[in-house]
Amino acid sequence: MKLTKPLVVLDLETTGIWIEKDRIIEIGMIKLFPDGQQEIYNTKVNPCMPIPAAVTQLTGISDADVKSAPMFGAIAGRVKSFMEEADLAGFNVERFDLPLLARELGDEGIAFDYSNCTIYDAQKIYHVHERRDLSAAFAFYCRRDLKDAHSALADAQATLSILQEQLKRYAPTREDIEALKEFDYKQMSGFFDNERKFRWWNGELYMTFGKYAKKESLKTIAKKDPRYLEWVLEKDFSDEVKQMIQGVLNGQYPQQDTDTP
User: What are the extents of the domains in the chain?
Assistant: First the structure.
């Protein structure tokens, strides 16, 4: 790989995927120089909050693993200096890693403006050059071309064949379709409702809209401004949300699934 300036390839492991609130639990960076030299920076980070069970299952990083690790504030300056004067790269780095890292640095009073950096996002390049549609999935799992693509029945049959192959590949000891339910990653979104108006963070629900968006927990709002929750009941929200809000006003707070980050 020929370089005209340093390139930092980075990845973050975090407590979840909410850019505005979740915290880094591990950071790994590789800095490549035009002369072929490399420098590596890698450390666990104490997020000062519990790591959700689903995140531990995904990353293998538990509360015990970060107990003695430095807090981000202690390494923020080193992290920023490692990336200075370099182009940046990663997988989904433009949509997730860099915005979250910038927020973490900002929380420590360190400005990190990467808007003028050249960013090489391997995920974007991958999605541009490799098809991700039903025909591509059929070729990948069933190893043959899909005939009559975009014919409703042909597409339905292809999907059935894909599911059968996925069952063989990912749950070889089981034959029932319910084995594939284990691969429902909806819980990783952290949202309470399908409309994504409320989101879990650190065991508490937060609004993603209005004047309290991402600022105060629902429990705090109920105590300081219950009229705002009464306003929610009057607006066009789902029955699921309204039932939850009415419960909060009655002192019944929803409990987060422990497997949800």
Answer: 7-126, 134-183, 189-249
Separation CA 193–CA 186 (nearest Å): 11
CA–CA distance from 184 to each of 98, 174, 189 (Å)? 26, 17, 11
pLDDT tens digits in sequence order for the chain, 261 residues long: 889 999 999 999 999 989 989 999 999 999 999 999 999 999 999 999 999 988 998 899 999 999 999 999 999 999 999 999 999 999 999 999 999 999 999 999 999 999 889 999 999 898 888 888 999 999 999 999 998 888 888 999 999 999 999 989 988 888 787 887 766 544 456 888 888 899 988 889 999 999 999 889 999 999 999 999 999 999 988 889 999 999 999 999 988 875 555
52: exposed, middle or buried (Cβ count in 10 Å: 0-12, 13-18, 19+): buried
Domain 7-126 in CATH 3.30.70.420? no
C-alpha dist (Å) from residue 91 to 11, 12, 45, 60: 8, 10, 20, 19
